[in-house]
Amino acid sequence: MKEKQIVTPFRSDDHQHSTCLASILTAAEQVCRQRGLKLTPLRYRVLELVWKTHEPVKAYDILQILQSEKKGAVPPTVYRALDFLQQQGFVHKLESMNAYVGCGAPGQHHTSQFLICHQCGVVAELDDDDIGQLIGSKTDALGFKASQLTIEIKGLCGSCQQA
Amino acid sequence: MKEKQIVTPFRSDDHQHSTCLASILTAAEQVCRQRGLKLTPLRYRVLELVWKTHEPVKAYDILQILQSEKKGAVPPTVYRALDFLQQQGFVHKLESMNAYVGCGAPGQHHTSQFLICHQCGVVAELDDDDIGQLIGSKTDALGFKASQLTIEIKGLCGSCQQA
DNA sequence: GCTATAATGTTATATTATAACATAACATTA
DNA sequence: TAATGTTATGTTATAATATAACATTATAGC
To answer: Are B126 and A111 in contact (CB under 8 A)?
Structure first.
């Protein structure tokens, strides 16, 4: 059984984001139910905000929105929610940008490689076994026991090359 | 002509760091001479400090040392020197740690993969063509034109697994 | 209801990084 | 060698990112 290699693709022109978002949120709710965890209104709202687009979102941008919606939001409010969402595999942090993106396979354990278009800002997420395995074999050969991978690739997506 | 795949290895027990450091500094001086750039005392000192060990160094740790050596150092002092050193390929930034490591092939153009031991903190730098090419072929297949790679792998180095 | 735990609220501060403008050092050449 | 342009550094201030520590509230299980 082969895993799907593209977790979150670059979107086609006819991408229906409301549908996309709805199915992600439903999936996250389901995972939480299964795990006996609480996807509280706050966590749910932060997940929605991260998934507002397919572009990375900054913690303080989320904070600003939360503050505009309801008094009392402060940095820990956001970072705790993000921590929870990351732990459950609902969002990923892009280390090279200090920003967060939604995960296209919420809750499923996988490694990720991110393609980040520096023109339009859109992020695609891969879970490519070949890359994972090659890195595994290379690190093994050096006697290194890898436990956490950060792979972030910046460049130009297809649409932006044409434009 | 095959490139050397291991730019900076995990050190053996008999690693002579003063020799290692000296040859790196000499190489950097040479590269600057060739390029008509100035490896000023400040830049040289920052490069030395980054290379004090094979572990990542924080900008503000460098700042503290500079301040203890001579009044007047402030954040821009350090960040400008680091920017120069990065541009010339003398140091790399580890995005996942907000920290800096010396480059084992100063000034030579290459892509890097970093292995970071979370036990001892030591960083090894690879320039593995296979990894680079695999990622290239994968991104090409998606119509993505990659221009900048961030590959940082955390885990346990050989020595730390034995201990 | 009581209690343990998890979640959120609250205040303060730590850490990382840059903007913007001023001065100094240095090289080129008029 | 004085004038000029350029690069590097000094200086002040602040922006951006993130966490510590402790208080309170909500919730679930008993």
So the answer is: no
Nearest Cβ partner for A152 among B6, B142, B150: B150
Phi, psi angles (nearest 5°) of residue A16: -100, 95
Residue in chain B lying closest to A5 (CA): B138
Residue nearest D16 (alpha carbon to C1'):
A60
Nucleotides of D under 7 A from a protein CB: 7-14, 16-21
Q: Which residue has the higher pLDDT, B3 or A87?
A: A87
Beta pairing partners, B148: A154
C1’ C21 / CA B135, Å: 44
Q: Using CB atoms, pick whichever of B10, B128, B161 lies closest to residue A138.
A: B128
Q: Does the pLDDT of residue B2 top 80, yes or no? A: no
Give the mean model confidence (pLDDT) for residues B57-74: 96
pTM (two decimals):
0.95
Look at residues A67, A68, A50, A69 and name the one whose alpha carbon lies nearest to residue A59.
A50
CA distances from B62 to A19, B74, B100 (A): 49, 10, 10
Q: Is the pLDDT assigned to residue A121 strictly greater than 70? A: yes
Residue (of B48, B74, B148) closest to A152 by Cα position: B148
> Which residues, in sequence order, are CB contacts of B120 under 8 Å at separation 6+?
B55, B157, B159, B160
Tokens of A111: 């490694």
pLDDT at B33: 96
Q: Over the stretch B124-158, which tens digit does the pLDDT of each residue have?
A: 999 999 999 999 999 999 999 999 999 999 999 99
CA of B123 to C1' of D6 (A): 38
Cβ of B59 < 7 Å from strand C? yes
